[in-house]
Amino acid sequence: MTATLTEAEPAAPPAHGDARRRQQAVRRGRAVALLFVLPALLLLGALVVYPVLFSIGRSFFDASGTKFVGAHNYTEMVSDPATRKAIRNTVIWVVVAPALLTALGLILAVLVEKVRWATAFKLLLFMPMAVSFLAAGIIFRLAYDEDPAKGVLNAAAVSVHDTFAGTSPYPTARARDGENLAPRKDGSYRTRATVSPGQTVALPLVGVLPGDLPSGSRPAATAAAHRADTDQLRGVAYLDFTPGGGGTPGKVDRGESGLPGMTVQAVRDGRTVATTTTGADGGFVFTGLRSGSYTLALPASNFAEPYSGVSWLGPTLVTPAIIGAYLWIWTGFAMVLIGAGLSTLPRDALEAARMDGANEWQIFRRITVPLLAPVLTVVLVTLVINVMKVFDLVYIIAPGPVQQDATVLATQMWLVSFGGGNDQGLGSALGVLLLLLVVPAMIFNVRRFKRSQQ
Predict the structure, then answer these.
(1) Per-residue model confidence (pLDDT) at position 454
(2) Does residue 37 have a pLDDT over 60?
(3) Helices H / strands E in the chain, number of each
């Protein structure tokens, strides 16, 4: 037994040689791996590392890049009103857009599970992701157009408004100068002289094209021919224009058209006591008025400009409008990612909660959301990184006059560097600031991803 063990001892040197060969194989494998990775590393250095280092160095020089100015660009960046507005808008984007997208994605992902055609619904919501930001910006620039004939949103807004509130019948009408109607500061008109029951009053107006008259309008001479009873106050509102020329200003001539649908008020002692509307021939009549003097008024609502919708791209709403376009593009992304996480949830926990009497809202709030917390966090942080770099939508959708009201850090960096500012020192400082804001979110996302892999 002892002799056998002694004879086996010389077998150790071959094991040492095997270890050396394994080390050589590992080194060769690393060299081969490095050889394959080298092109990617060169591209990474050329397209990412070098530009970052160059921008950091460039931020310490003046606009021409020849004079070292230290931290001057950073102090100017903080004191510049346009940059402060860009930072404020970026904060709005970071706070609002990712939270809304995550909430919408969560709600849609939960609801889609209960839809029969879930796959088709997901496809429809995800399709905007295939549209470039340039194309999406052009689409929403047209959709937000203030002209209802071009902008679909304002066309819908005008249709709803006109359905419930109506429109002013004669926005271009005005009283003929020197005649019976006197203008007031609020846009209304009142008769210069007082009138009494038993009279018939002519209210001449101009400024309405014959082609713009309502289709049911009739000649005003019919109404002017009526004589008022002693307890009536009659009148006619008409277009004081005779087709083909001729006629007497301030007098109802044959062929002149009445103005139907116009509101007329009888005012006494500064108070409106009666209101009526003109008929097809422009005629109107007040009955039951007490004896005395009255003033006839045409309220400003008769002449108000037609409702043209909402100024979506004005200084007040331009940022929310652009965020709305961003939501249209990215909601499908959030829904699909959250839906993937939702499909991995343990169904037995959900069924157990239902068997215990929990309703769908309690299951959603106390089971689904807590279990989806890691997925929701990843989606939220990814969207935060994305919105910090948003450029295309802001630059395309916001019109020139309100570009500064909608600017964010990415667009401000481009405007300062290349869009007319020609100050690449300040632009580089803005780029460094944007990098500093994005890096923490990226690190957080990468660490979370690594922990989830473990």
Answers:
(1) 64
(2) yes
(3) 18, 9
Please give the structure tokens belonging to residue 430. Answer: 């803005």
Structural domain ending residue among the three candidates 273, 302, 331: 302
How many CA atoms lie within 13 Å of 179's alpha carbon, on the beta-carbon side? 21
For 57, 70, 413, 430, the CA distances from 67, given in Å and listed in that order, are 12, 9, 20, 18
User: Whole-angstrom Cα distance, residue 212 to residue 171?
Assistant: 11
Q: In whole angstroms, give the CA distance from residue 231 to residue 204.
A: 24
φ, ψ of residue 277 in degrees (nearest 5) = -130, 140
Helices within 80-132 (DSSP H only): 81-112, 118-126
375 within some domain = yes
Question: Element (H or E) spanning 233, and its range?
Answer: strand 232-239
- Helix or strand holding residue 37 (H, E): helix 12-44
Q: One-letter amino acid identity for 328? A: W
For 210-250, write each residue's pLDDT tens digit. Answer: 888 888 889 998 888 888 788 889 999 999 988 777 778 88
- State both tokens at 182: 């006197």
Where are the strands (E) in 271-409, listed by range? 271-277, 283-287, 295-298
Assess whether 253 and 220 both reside in one domain: yes
Quickly count: other Cβ atoms within 10 Å of residue 199's Cβ: 14
Task: Yes or no: say if 405 and 92 are a contact pair by the CB < 8 Å rule.
Answer: no
Q: How many CB atoms lie within 10 A of CB 333?
A: 19
Distance CA 309, CA 307 (A): 6
Contact criterion met (CB below 8 Å) for 29 and 36: no
**Which element (helix H / strand E) includes 263?**
strand 263-268
Do both 271 and 317 map to the same domain?
Answer: no
Q: Which two tokens stand for residue 350?
A: 């959900």
Q: What are phi and psi of 365, to 5 degrees?
A: -80, -35
Q: Which two tokens stand for residue 453?
A: 């892999």
SS3 label, residue 7: helix
- The count of domains in the chain is 2
316 with 449, same domain: the answer is yes
Structure tokens at 295: 């003033």
**pLDDT tens digits, 306-355:** 888 889 999 999 999 999 999 999 999 999 899 888 888 888 887 888 88
Domain of residue 227: give its range.
Answer: 174-302
Query: 452 versus 412: which is more confidently predicted?
Result: 412
* C-alpha R_g of the chain: 38
For residue 196 the two structure tokens come to 């009494």
179/233 same-domain check: yes
| H or E element that contains 370 | helix 369-371
388 within 8 A of 94, measured Cβ to Cβ: yes
